[in-house]
Specification:
Layout lengths: L1 H31 L4 E12 L5 E11 L4 E7 L15 E13 L2 E6 L6 E2 L2 E5 L17 E7 L9 E9 L3 E2 L3 E9 L5 E10 L17 E5 L5 E3 L5 E9 L5 E8 L10 E2 L5 H52 L20 H8 L6 H13 L3 E4 L13 E4 L10 H14 L5 E3 H7 L3 H24 L5 H8 L4 H19 L5 H19 L6 H19 L11 H14 L2 H14 L15 H31 L19 E5 L1
Parallel strand pairs: 1-12, 10-17
Antiparallel strand pairs: 1-2, 2-9, 3-8, 3-21, 4-5, 4-9, 6-7, 7-8, 10-11, 11-16, 12-15, 13-16, 14-15, 18-19, 19-20
Length: 660
């Protein structure tokens, strides 16, 4: 029973901790990808032209469910924090703007604002034109170009999008260097998978720098901690990311000798040296990026190491507690069967030991039967046949008996049944027990007496010293680890939420669950004392003997009086019907068996008593609940009220996208 309760409690705790642990992960995932689509196999080629413009070529497919329309905004403005004057904003080269969609053997294509927007059953529409819903297309910012692609058959994962466009004056030209600072792959408000970026530089014979002090061509990346530069040369800068979240992008800052782009009209020229200005910004960004990376790694590895250490410590704590305070002491008896009563104390106290400090209705039934066996109560057939299905036997209390030998709870049971339920009389029928709990006031009396009787059994049971209370107290000294674990779990989940390190959530879950379950475990430790365990293993073997004694061919049947006594304990075990069935089979094989003055005279009497005891308790609870519900109904219902309840270098470019 204790193990079952412990397992159920820990499962509930684990479920709650799991929900709490995954919430930061869910928030992170929602924050990372709150769109209903994603980009896949995204290949972007950016080319710096000798006139200072930037040609862009994008190819990608989309993963979405049941969408028909792809919506895109291309932003070509620069962030003011990266500018060196107020009038050097780039311009969009509309003539180069082209959108192509390839779907198997079918290809549709359209240049910006040229040709018909409707192509067969599909639509490619740009700024100022109507989309498939009849609404005019416009961007969220002034310096942007916008388009939609509507596919009548829907977007599928094999549909390939190709976008070409050019940004004039994208490169800043100084006397000493040229600079491109651009979001070559914007966030696009969606997750991006298998991302490849290639930046083509103007033809040159310069060397690629490995640091700020070496080489002629330098490059830096921002906006996606999962992005990596690969295979970079003085002609090409390449980068790759397995996955970019919806808030991540690939921003590149690259500067190189100024003579790679001849100064001429139309370029973004500044009559000053720019390298120091660029490096100041780079160093600030690098410092911020390094500080973030340091914080990220510090939190990540500190949480990981501390979590592993704590999990190891709390695991050892569980083992140590079990070994020292929960593992049962070794008993001297190790037999499979015990053929006589292991001890002389009444069945309720045996049930208290056997069921680990729990008193059940079987113990109440067994105590009542034991009082009948000991002649404090007698049974009258009350005109009922022994073969009736539910006989209404009468219980008669012999008030002339000496009650001094009774335990406190046995005496209280007689008071309960005959002074309370029989209202001071000496007789009560089984039907009158049911009738007693038919009124609310009497049902409450019955419930109160039931509780008092159980408490008295527990009080006597504690005096028997069946359990080692010191073991539980000593085990609970280790509960100080629980608040430490909760604090650590909160720290870990804070890191998960703040830095998006989702795998750490499993450590938060394990730590929180183990910490709370430690308190539950130590509170439910019920190790038996040496005496208690000696008796327990004998009672366990005795129970098995009662269940299987009919299979013992060499077993000499003791007297009926002895078996009547055994039947009382079998009732507390909950196996009285099994024992009685075996006994009656044995009686048929014996001669001159007289059961007239025993419990065995009344077939299945233990079942009647157990049924009536359980039924009275259930009927009493039902009576109380019904009465309370009727009062609430009469008083009416009341109304209610309520309510509805990293980094960037500030480069140019950007954009948004969505599907519908």
């Amino acid at each position: 029973m204790r193990k079952k309760k412990l397992i159920i409690s820990c499962l509930i705790v684990a479920f709650i901790c799991l929900i709490i642990s995954i919430l930061p992960v869910v928030f992170n995932l929602l924050d990372e990808d709150d769109s209903n689509f994603s980009y896949n196999n995204m290949n972007v080629t950016a080319t710096i032209n000798t006139d200072g413009s930037l040609s862009m070529h994008e190819e990608f497919t989309l993963e979405t469910n049941s969408a028909h329309t792809y919506i895109r905004e291309i932003i070509y403005s620069k962030d003011n924090k990266s500018n060196y004057s107020s009038d050097n904003q780039p311009s969009f080269d509309d003539e180069s703007f082209k959108v192509t969609v390839i779907n198997g053997d079918k290809t549709i294509s359209r240049n910006y604002l040229q040709g018909e927007r409707i192509i067969g059953n599909d639509i490619i529409a740009f700024d100022g034109e109507k989309d498939e819903l009849g609404d005019y297309i416009q961007g969220s910012v002034e310096l942007s170009r916008n388009f939609i692609v509507y596919l009548s058959n829907g977007i599928n994962k094999n549909t390939k999008y190709v976008i070409d466009y050019k940004i004039n004056k994208a490169v800043n030209i100084f006397n000493d260097v040229c600079e491109l600072n651009w979001k070559l792959i914007p966030s696009l408000d969606a997750k991006k998978k298998n991302v490849n970026l290639t930046l083509n530089l103007p033809d040159n014979n310069y060397t690629l720098g490995t640091s700020q002090d070496e080489g002629d061509i330098h490059y830096y990346g921002y906006g996606g901690i999962n992005s990596k530069f690969t295979d970079c040369t003085n002609k090409q800068i390449k980068a790759f990311a397995k996955k970019l979240n919806s808030n991540e992008e690939m921003e590149v800052l690259c500067y190189f000798p100024s003579n790679m782009i001849p100064v001429k009209e139309g370029t973004n020229y500044f009559d000053q040296n720019g390298e120091d200005l660029i490096l100041d910004r780079v160093n600030v960004n690098l410092a911020e990026e390094n500080a973030y990376a340091k914080r990220y790694n510090t939190y990540k590895y500190s949480a990981l190491v501390i979590s592993i250490i704590f999990i190891g410590l709390i695991g050892f704590t569980y083992f140590n507690i079990y070994r020292k305070y929960d593992k049962e002491l070794k008993a001297s008896f190790d037999g499979e069967y015990y053929r006589e009563l292991p001890a002389s104390y009444p069945p309720a106290e045996m049930g208290y030991l056997y069921n680990e400090e729990i008193v059940s209705s079987n113990d109440l039934s067994a105590t009542l039967m034991d009082l009948i066996r000991r002649k404090y109560i007698s049974i009258d057939q009350n005109g009922c046949s022994l073969t009736e299905k539910t006989p209404n036997y009468k219980l008669i209390f012999d008030r002339n008996k000496d009650l001094s030998e009774l335990t406190e709870y046995e005496g209280y049971l007689l008071y309960w049944y005959f002074d309370v339920m029989a209202k001071g009389g000496n007789e009560i029928t089984l039907n009158e027990i049911d009738k007693f709990v038919s009124t609310e006031s009497d049902a409450k009396k019955y419930s109160e007496c039931n509780k008092i009787w159980g408490d008295k059994v527990l009080s006597v049971g504690k005096k028997d010293n069946f359990f080692d209370d010191e073991a539980r107290k000593n085990a609970q000294k280790f509960n100080f680890m629980a608040p430490l674990g909760i604090i650590l779990a909160m720290y870990v989940l804070f890191i998960v939420f703040s830095f998006g390190i989702n795998f750490l959530a499993i450590f938060g879950f394990i730590i929180a669950t183990a910490s709370v379950c430690l308190v539950i475990y130590t509170r439910q430790i019920r190790r038996r004392s040496q005496k208690g365990n000696e008796d327990f293993v004998k009672w366990k073997a005795f129970k098995k003997f009662l269940e299987e004694f009919s299979h013992f061919e060499d077993y000499p049947m003791p007297s009926i009086i002895v078996w009547e006594h055994y039947l009382v304990y079998a009732t507390s075990f909950g196996i009285a019907d099994v024992v009685e069935k075996q006994l009656r089979t044995k009686f048929k094989e014996m001669e001159n068996v007289d059961v007239s003055d025993t419990l065995l005279y009344y077939p299945s009497f233990n079942n009647y008593i157990s049924y009536r005891v359980g039924r009275a308790s259930a009927l009493g609870k039902q009576t109380i609940v019904t009465a309370q519900a009727q009062r609430m109904a009469k008083s009416g219902s009341s109304g209610g009220h309520g309510g509805f309840g990293g980094g960037s270098s500030f480069g140019g470019g950007g954009g948004h996208s969505s599907v519908r």
